[in-house]
Write a structure and sequence with these properties.
Helix content: 25-40%
Number of helices: 11
Radius of gyration: 18 Å
Order of helices and strands: EEEHEHEEHHEHEHEHEHEHHHE
CATH superfamily: Metal-dependent hydrolases
CATH topology: TIM Barrel
Shape: globular
Oligomer: single chain
CATH class: Alpha Beta
CATH architecture: Alpha-Beta Barrel
Number of domains: 1
Strand content: 5-15%
Largest sheet: 6 strands, parallel
Number of strands: 12
Length: 309
């Protein structure tokens, strides 16, 4: 069976994904971000429209289980905007949940992930196309290890890619040791997020050498070492032969960060950000980061659905 990308409107050929924001959010809710929820379908539609006008064709939403991912809204938004949307299952850090939510899913967390990947999210008819989990700051706590073990089990059952939130960009090698070492996940099924937030070229090189995908996602704040160091980081990886491992994303996590509210939002990735990178790295390489690389990273050989007798 040929690999396909599982979208909210069904499976598609990887080549049909097009220009892809490999890590972003249309809907998101967390007690860590009070008053900044991404919960408005009208605002989500406007953001998608702006992204599409900028040349965007696909968005991978990394919002996992229990964080208001708006699964029921996603098919309509995809149809109306013309933007392909990939949804996520998975679980974030424990601080993003009420204890009752975690207690509800912990007895069979891998089963929840598999069901959402192969059947549907809730009663929405939408299937997830990737698994999202999270590490901690320079390490992995008990919750992260439990969640990653469940993610690995679901990955082995479905083939889905695992996207990993790296807290402030740290802990990449600990994640790889656990997922790809102890838990046996193939490195090319792992996407390490937020590496731009910790611009350590040695860690980047070691992570790339493992075979994992490296996501550089989210625009910079002026006092953070992200955008202004990114061209050098990506040039170093590409020059060492790892241009096929790099993904780019926007990671819009608050209402105030949306372009429709005056923030950079999803269009920023394909506007100023892309042009800066093209000047430094060349158009062909940046196009590969936005098209061919995510098409491979999020494609899987999904299990055939069970059929009745």
């Amino acid at each position: 069976m040929a690999p396909t990308v599982r979208t909210v409107l069904g499976d598609i050929a990887p080549a049909d994904l097009g220009v892809c924001d490999a890590h972003d959010h249309l809907f998101l809710r967390s007690p860590r971000l009070p008053g900044e929820e991404l919960a408005d379908p009208v605002a989500a539609a406007a953001e998608l429209a702006a992204f599409h006008r900028a040349g965007g064709a696909a968005v991978v939403q990394w919002t996992p289980y229990g964080m208001g991912r708006g699964a029921a809204e996603l098919p309509r938004l995809a149809q109306e905007s013309g933007v392909t949307i990939v949804a996520a299952t998975g679980l974030h850090q424990a601080v993003h949940y009420a204890p009752a939510v975690l207690e509800r899913v912990r007895p069979d967390l891998a089963g929840v992930f598999v069901t959402e990947l192969t059947e549907e999210i809730g009663a929405t008819g939408v299937r997830a196309g990737m698994i999202k989990v999270a590490g901690g700051f320079h390490g992995l706590d008990r919750h992260a290890r439990y969640t990653m073990a469940a993610a690995a089990e679901a990955q082995h059952a479905t083939g889905a890619a695992i996207g990993v939130h790296l807290e402030l960009g740290t802990g990449a090698l600990d994640v790889l040791d656990l997922l790809c070492g102890a838990l046996g996940v193939a490195p090319d099924r792992v996407v390490l997020g937020h590496l731009n937030r910790s611009p350590d070229p040695v860690v980047h090189r070691m992570a790339a050498e493992s075979g994992a995908y490296l996501a550089f996602d989210g625009p910079s704040r002026a006092h953070h070492a992200t955008d202004w160091r990114l061209p050098d980081a990506l040039a170093g990886l590409a020059g060492a032969g790892f241009g096929d491992r790099i993904l780019l994303g926007g990671d819009t996590t608050t209402a105030g960060a949306r372009s429709v509210n005056g923030g950079p939002g999803m269009p920023y990735l394909l506007g100023r950000h892309r042009r800066r990178l093209e000047l430094a790295l060349g158009e062909d390489l940046v196009t590969r980061f936005l098209t061919a690389n995510p098409a491979r990273a999020f494609a899987a050989r999904w299990p055939r659905p069970a059929t009745g007798s």
